[in-house]
Predict the 3D structure of the following.
Amino acid sequence: YLVDLPGYGFTRTSKALRDRLEQLINWYLFTSPYIQEKIVLIIDAHIGPQENDLEILRCLEKYKKNIIVVANKIDKIKKSEYESQLENIQEVIGGHLVIPYSAKKKIGVTALLDEMIF
């Protein structure tokens, strides 16, 4: 199955509902009997990894999850800053595969599908 969980950074709802969503996500990822073969963590490549991205990444690492990091919105990065921004993302993310991705320009689609399937 492919499960799409709500974004943890920009959920526009009440604090009570956000807290409940966080509980459900944590249960699903870390204590439920369901096995996640791979987890795709999507970060905004334009702004780089944020504290909440790194927090969830460290939790996933702690539980030894198979993580694919997608650096989304690469089309918003200036060409002159592209290489340095991707290097920065890779440095902050660590040893995980980082797939540069743009849904708008269809960049990285094949690479992501290949990683998800195999």
Observations:
- The two ends are 14 Å apart (CA to CA).
- The beta strands are 39-44, 67-72, 98-100.
- Residues 11 and 18 are 7 Å apart (CA to CA).
